[in-house]
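Q: Got a minute? One more chain.
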Amino acid sequence: MKPVTYHIQNNQIDQLTEQFGSQLEQLDRPQKLQLRAILTYFVIGRDMMGSEYSINAALIDSNQYLFVSTPEVEKCIEILQNITVPDAESLQVALVEQCRTGNARLKTSTESMTDDLVQHGVDYQLARMAAYILITVDNTRERTSDEQVIINQVHQILIKQGGNNE
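A: Always. Here it is, folded:
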């Protein structure tokens, strides 16, 4: 995964990456999607209304519909005051890449199940194997006896964890 500065580098982007990491990893997927949308409003607004259309106006226009503003997004907007259209478009490219293939991409069903199992007390490696079996193997063939042993282990852990939470 490439840092944001691969696509664009200036003082604003340096501030943004200092605040949120070289790949903006401290922003989650919804925040990155919102930032992309705000930048899109900004670019369209500049094209339609001229240079008086600001990133703040883009934030206000985008918040009318489905966004809930977060302190992180507000900080990004504060940093991006006076961003140019070419820089906004370059930042959009970086954000698109992160949402498609990088640290903000949608997780696969196997990754999501692994995370859920880990949150319920299953060791990561065991959770990963079990998720693979449940998502991939069960949809393509019968489980082997070794695979069933793994599923049984996870089941026992989940039962034990359930008993500890009561």
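A: The mean pLDDT is 87.
Q: Perfect, thanks.
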